[in-house]
């Protein structure tokens, strides 16, 4: 069982940056693949980025490649999403997610979810 708590969201102007954090409970954080998703009002949840349990591989949605960076610090039980060059279309509720490192990392099936943190990008 894993509990996830996101933070770092807020209001930012287009072109600005934010860093989201996801703090995980438990003593087996290093064994989980981690991901970020987002959902805008009235739209379906959208994949953003994934990082494998060992941090050696990452995968990004085409819409954020070159702008967002996912990373993790297993010693702090935390995963991050650095968001640069933000656009109004990045506005959404951002969710952290986790799944067993025994599962394929580059799929969108995750077992544990945080409550989300809101990111609003103004023009």
Task: Describe how the helices and strands are arranged.
Elements: E1 4-7, E2 10-13, E3 18-24, E4 32-39, E5 46-51, E6 58-60, E7 68-73, E8 78-83, E9 92-100, E10 112-113, E11 117-122
Parallel strand pairs: 2-11
Antiparallel strand pairs: 1-3, 3-8, 4-5, 4-9, 5-6, 7-8, 9-10, 9-11
Q: What would you note in describing this structure?
A:
This protein is mainly β and 123 residues long. Helix content is 0%, strand content 50%. It has no helices and 11 strands. Strands 2, 4, 5, 6, 9, 10 and 11 form a 7-stranded mixed β-sheet that branches. Strand 4 (32-39) and strand 5 (46-51) form a beta hairpin. It is globular and about 40 Å long.
Tell me briefly what this model is:
This protein has 123 residues and is an all-beta fold.
* Largest beta-sheet characterization: 7 strands, mixed
How far apart are the termini?
40 Å
Q: Give the C-alpha Rg.
A: 13 Å
Give the structural class.
mainly beta
Q: What is the overall number of helices?
A: 0
List keywords for this structure.
four-stranded antiparallel β-sheet; seven-stranded mixed β-sheet; mainly beta; 123 residues
């Amino acid at each position: 069982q894993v509990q996830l708590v996101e933070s770092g969201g807020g209001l930012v102007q287009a072109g600005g940056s934010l860093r989201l954090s996801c703090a995980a409970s438990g003593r087996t954080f290093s064994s989980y693949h981690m991901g970020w998703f987002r959902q805008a009002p009235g739209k379906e949840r959208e994949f953003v980025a994934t990082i494998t349990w060992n941090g050696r591989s990452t995968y990004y949605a085409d819409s954020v490649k070159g702008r967002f960076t996912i990373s993790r610090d297993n010693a702090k039980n935390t995963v991050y999403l650095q968001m640069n060059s933000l656009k109004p279309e990045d506005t959404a509720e951002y969710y952290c997610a986790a799944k067993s490192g025994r599962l394929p990392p580059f799929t969108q099936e995750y077992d544990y979810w945080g409550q989300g943190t809101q990111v609003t990008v103004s023009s």
